[in-house]
What we know:
It is a single chain. This protein is α+β, with helices and mostly antiparallel strands. The radius of gyration is 23 Å and the shape is globular. The chain folds into five domains: 12-100, Uridine Diphospho-n-acetylenolpyruvylglucosamine Reductase, domain 2; 107-237, Uridine Diphospho-n-acetylenolpyruvylglucosamine Reductase, domain 3 (2-Layer Sandwich); 239-375, Alpha-Beta Plaits, CATH 3.30.70.3450; 380-496, GMP Synthetase, Chain A, domain 3 (2-Layer Sandwich), CATH 3.30.300; 505-536, no CATH class. A hairpin with a 5-residue loop joins strand 8 and strand 9 (187-189). It contains 20 helices and 21 strands. The relative contact order is 0.12.
Amino acid sequence: MPDDLSNIAPGLPALHARLSAIVGPENLRDDAESLALHGADIWARGPGQIALVVAPAGLDELRRSLAACHDAGFDVAPRGAGMSYTGGYVPAGPNTVSLDMSRMNRILAIREDDMMVTVQAGCTWVALNAALAKQGLRTPFWGPMSGLVSTIGGGLSQLNAMFGAGHYGTSSQSVVSLTVVLADGRVLRTGARRPDPAGAEGGLPFYRHYGPDLAGLFCGDCGVFGVKAEITLRLMRAPAHEGFASFSFPSGEAMLRALAEVARAGLASESCAFDPGLTRVRMKRASLAGDVKTLGAVAARQTSWVAGALAAWRVVKGGRNFIPEDGYPLHLVFEGRSAAGVAQDVAQARRIALAEGGQAIEDTIARVIRAQPFPPLNSVLGPAGERWAPIHGHVALSQAPALFGAIEAVFAGLAERFAAAGISTGYLFTHLETNAITVEPVFYWPEERFPVHDRAVEPAHMARLPTLAANPEGTALVREARRQVMAVFVRFGCAHFQIGRTYPYRESLDPAAWALVETLKAALDPDGSLNPGVLGLDRVTGARE
């Protein structure tokens, strides 16, 4: 049980017994280590304390667990891999049960005849891709860079960028159907479903848009409307051909203009760009050409051993000094049904880059990103053990250079205080279909790490990092900087993934839209027990924490 029971509801022992009977005592945890792990995300600890951690194994256990928590008057915070940095699953109050979805990790059905795959919400992107690759299949959007541990249900709750997003958008755009469990244990299914010949309840989903898009209500909701249990995604044949290109630009604005034009033309399946500061961090931390496993992964993606050897040689040739020290590198991956079509896309991207003053550089990083899409999560700490925290905004293509300049002005105003506090910054950039560019400033600063860091980072890598002391003053300055950057995002009308308790979602809506959100919450979760405070929804006032 939690150390401090003074604020815990008296029904905890009875709830403990009921949940233990549902999931088994070994899948119900209240030890200090588990409560601490589930009580904080990458950025901060929650304002409340976790009372229990429950890990159901399937739809029935999930349904019964939620009903038990509802009957006992406890809040529920669904948690995927724990990579949130916006307070998306941390407890708002002391009577909170953390819902650990890691046991709901099965791939339930791969239906190539209908081009659908159904998974449990706790299935990881790396596991899904490994299973589909054996059949030459893929989902259109196929995962974030954290896909080694990130779950598909968590990705739909928070939304994702990266692999396939340049052509197919974020994770929710690959969804066909959802099976959702509501706060009181009721089951809700979306989409058109043909009867299951085996007679299974719910049938076989095959099409999303039958009437109003109910599935969309639960995508990007951060778990406030219901808990995703089973997810059906579209399938596609894995593209037969790939291409790669990397360029370095003299300024962030030039790079963003080029990326916007690449997006408008629909050329790259995925993009990844950095500023000089983040490039130096990545080069310091990553092994790249010196890593035998990396070379093997690059070679294995080729169609013959000759092509594989050539690709690996190109990575080695690139070495570590192929990006100009003050350049803004842009790495692009292309895919298609024919080598000629991919080559045309690469050539057009090259023309766009050169027109904006870019210069071609070795495509080492582009190749490594595609060959090793889901690396270990060692990047959740800086190269010297510093804490890491990003913040991001999705902006209209034409506005990306100006947004970048406005954030740079914020950082310039804080430069002296950053230097005194040992805070450094960087940027990650990518694009979403033909509509938006993601600008993601990141912060590194000396600060103690949380249990989620110990869980995410490889033990061998963690052993090389120093243990840093608590630094509340430095964290307060990072918090102030995040607020200033947030104000810039608001000025540009940016959208955001993983809204949690951080981004001003409520303030971005007109009164009629917000009234609809509140009405949906009241209908689906009238007691407000799922993730209270997230999305700006509060049990009583609707105010954002």
